[in-house]
Amino acid sequence: MVDRRTPEMCEKEAESRASEGPPWPARFRSTSSCSSEGARAPSPADKQPAAPDGGWGWVVLLATILVLALTLAFPSCIGIFYTDLQSQFHANNSETSWVPSIMTAVLHAGGPLCSVLVEHYGCRVTVMLGGLLSGIGMATSSFTQSIGQLYITAGVITGLGFCLSFQPAIAILGHYFVRRRAFANSLASTGTAIGLSTLPLFAHFLLTHMGWRGSFLILGAVLLNCCVCGAVMRPVHQGSKKPNRTRGQPDKIENELSSTGHHRASGKLAAFLAALQKHMAFDLFCSNKRYQIYSIGVTWMMLGFVVPLLYLVPYATSHGMEQNRAALLLSILGLINIFMRPLAGIISELHCFSGKHIYLFSGAVLVNGLSNCICGIGASFSVLLAFVGVYALSMSFIGSLLFQVLMEIVEMPRFPSALGLITIMESVTLLIGPPLGGLLVDSTQEYKYVFYACCCAMVSSALFMGVAFYLLERDERKTMDPPKHAAPLSLDCQYTGITPGSRAVQRSGSETEYITSV
């Protein structure tokens, strides 16, 4: 029998059913003809149980901390092997610096691919696949015979494994924690700091006793522990994925247009374009001025944010400092981050900074850039210790506010795609930053000019974001003339204002589906 009801009739029928009694269970709604054509698909909140906010979630949180310690902090310990790689492959500073730069760039640029894998296979499988790739990449790096081979093994393969491990590890916390999400994310962010404080010392120990080849082999085995961490990240909602999976617009287009052989090619193209729009935010970049300013500023900031960590150990050892003391500087930087990141999050939540997080973030970027000038004073342990202290303090605020500011600029349903576009843009500057620093060292034979260049990049980025946001808000205050009885609107958000007493409209997306902090 053919159902001749229109989508409007289905919606009215659903509303009348809702007013008469409790809603139908999800398993009965899925078999209705209205649900397949006109009715809106049930939200994820209707399909999945509430997040436990504890229990097995604490095990998942511990696994996330370990994954972040092994992935995000790993590129910084490559500086321990910097001089050994130079002498082994007879490479200059620019050629050697491509190894950590490719690793970091691929780590950030693989976000869209990671999102597709998570959507099809889940966080657990994706994290385990990333751990397998990163372990294989570092293990095979110990057998390379040229610097070009190292670009592929340690750079591309290991970097892609890091990307597939750390992004799903962060995302799954949103499913396990709701009420305690801020606390869980603040604890998870200490994973990077733990890695910064332990990996350099461990890498130096391996280098002293086994050389760089043996060190890479053992580090590859250590990275395989990401597979163990991923194995405990079981999904909150147990059951088959395909029946409960909410099909989005790309799947709908592909199923409709691929039903006949004539339209199969056009259906795949339409599905690809729709998926690209889903996982990227090109329209948001063109329409949202705040997102435009922030993404450009953060991309430019990354040109000088990571480079000092890569050149700190070579700079110290080139002036006669022992390598173990130089590695200790990175460990101290990580220890400061462990204690300061949660404190930075608490400070940013003070009432005096309400609606001003972008200026607090710009100030932290400014201080971080100016701290590089300390390295120009000298290369003694006390001078570099002062640099590490100021750099670590500002780095803690940058890490705590980087995603918080983005959440205030865009709506939560668009946050994953907005974050994906920023990571793609960041990967470009993260890729070219270290080689440009190496080229500067090769031409001047002085490491201090690298820190000066990083200072210029960071300071200019901070001034650009701070001044641009101030001018934008000043222009909006001039054009806006709200009524006196209207509720004040926060200038750092793009959400629709809701007057007191009005009924909020439920969004189609659930906030538990999205990354909230790192």
Automatic annotation (TrEMBL):
What molecular functions are annotated in GO for this chain?
monocarboxylic acid transmembrane transporter activity
Domain named Major facilitator superfamily (MFS) profile is located at: 59-478
PROSITE patterns xrefs: MFS
Query: InterPro entries per the record?
Result: MFS (IPR011701), MFS_dom (IPR020846), MFS_trans_sf (IPR036259), Proton-linked_MCT (IPR050327)
The subcellular location is: Membrane
Q: Name one GO cellular component term.
A: basolateral plasma membrane
| UniProt KW keywords | Membrane, Transmembrane, Transmembrane helix
This protein is called what?
Answer: Major facilitator superfamily (MFS) profile domain-containing protein
**What lineage is this protein's organism placed in?**
Eukaryota, Metazoa, Chordata, Craniata, Vertebrata
